[in-house]
Amino acid sequence: MDRINDNYAVWCEKASLYKADLDSMSDEDKKEAFYKDLEFGTAGLRGILGAGTNRLNVYTIGKVTKGLALYLLAHKKSGVTVAISYDSRNCSEEFARYAAAVLAECGIKAYITDKLQPTPYLSYMVRSLKCDAGIMITASHNPAKFNGYKVYGADGCQVTDNAATEIFSFIEGVDTFSVRPADFDKAVASGAIEFADVTRAYLDEVYKRSVGAARNVSVVYTPLNGTGASIVPQMFRERGFNNVTIVPEQAMPDGNFPTTPYPNPEKAEALRLAVELAKKTGADIVIGTDPDADRIGAAVKTGDGYRLISGNEMGVLLIDYIFSHAKALPKNPVVVKTIVTTDLAARVAERCGAEVREVLTGFKYIGEVIKKLEQKGEGDRFVFGYEESYGYLSGTYVRDKDAVVASMLVAEMAADYLKEGKTLADVLDGIYSEFGKYYHRTVSFTYEGAAGAQKMREVLASVRNNPPAEIDGSAVVESIDYLTQTKFDLPKSNVLSFKAADGSKLIVRPSGTEPLIKVYITAASGGEQRIDAILDQVKKFM
């Protein structure tokens, strides 16, 4: 407790902006807010808003930004530029402007969006303005109490493990309360900070990924009170989708996310209002984007209601659709999926004549595949990349998942298949008839606070040291520890994978951004009941 009390005392003395928060803290609040510093990794920072070293606030934002500035200046003495954008979360614009002001004080030019914009927009902005780095203020689909800080490299991809480690070394050397930002308005007037808008160029790149010409489809769209509202409706209008209804309660940016506690399109609850509106309007498809518009969820009209399409399923549908409907495809096309994404995606892609590459969880690894292809002059071979957590990318104009291009492709796909007398559910069932149905479920176990962090370490160590010998009665025939394996050309990662003789799978990993252990369950047969049985087995580890 000495460290906690010492840190608290320093903040009480120096963090005047958060005096009220500090004064009202209980002993437990102090412990959670000061027992450690927020961790900076390849996903940047993510934390609960508030005062403290383990919270996201202007002081932690300032410290990280100063560390990033020192890192950039160590590699390039002058002419450094950084792109900055932000989502609809509480404090996002404040944090973005504060980061820009810190960079300006360090002699680094900051290009900042003049309004909230999606994460993929930031990735494009870095690339189009030829910046040395990018900052996105977002906590993606987390609850309202969170915000975050993502760092992108000059290629528009989230920084890699090695770069994150080096940036962190500079951050550690920064005294939190020594950071002095420039005056924002004066920095704008001097040109040290410049507002930037690349919307037209970005959307033009999105439109190049168009596959179908049909537009006769009715859509209910929800931005879930996030950044999708700033650009997805414009995309629909410009691409000729004239029958689009936006969920009114979720149409405007709102960091409190008043209609859903967890604004994640992976969750049925997040799309509930959209589905209810679709039932009233008779819409053919529901499309929802998360708060920073890099993920997309969907539901399709069927004979007896609306069927949610999972992230795994939508990726399979998009691969099948792009390869069957695109007017032109490259020679030796490449499709990229993560190791936790359904094996059905690989089977469909291979049937379509594509080379399939597997990467670790995290879209930056898909971005690295694109980069390596481009370095060999083969960038056009990349056709599609996705991860089961509802993130998709077609094209190489950005290096992150993009719900804007995904929304366009899903609407086109629904329209094309309706013209052929089919729904997305019909097409999906046809794929299952061809390859057999895969059953998947991702389950998260939450471990909050200091005690939770220790428990997470213990659980992962237990699974690693006492791996399962069978998965619901089927013997495990392949075990992979991605921290120690040498079979695959992949970075080391705290991921454990187990495959049974019948094709069932378990993959266990800690979240890189939340206090969670994620478990990915695949049942090769037996349906949801088999998934339930495997989950019961998993719970014994947790």
Please identify the oligomeric state.
single chain
What low-confidence regions span 5 or more consecutive residues with pLDDT below 50?
Answer: none
Based on Cα principal axes, name the global outline: globular
Rounded radius of gyration (Å)? 23 Å
Q: Strand percentage, roughly?
A: 15-25%
Find the count of extended strands (DSSP E, 2+ residues): 21
SS element count, helices: 18
Neighbour order of strands in the largest sheet: 1-5-4-2-3-6
How helical, in percent, are the residues? 25-40%
In whole angstroms, the N-to-C terminal distance is 28 Å
Query: Structural class, from secondary structure content?
Result: alpha/beta
Largest sheet descriptor: 6 strands, mixed
Average the pLDDT over all residues and give the rounded result: 95
Structure description:
The chain has 542 residues and is an alpha/beta fold. It is built from 18 helices and 21 strands. It has a six-stranded mixed β-sheet, with helices on both faces. Strands 16-21-20-19-18-17 form a six-stranded antiparallel β-sheet, with helices on one face. Strand 14 and strand 15 (391-393) form a beta hairpin. It is globular, with a radius of gyration of 23 Å. The mean pLDDT is 95.
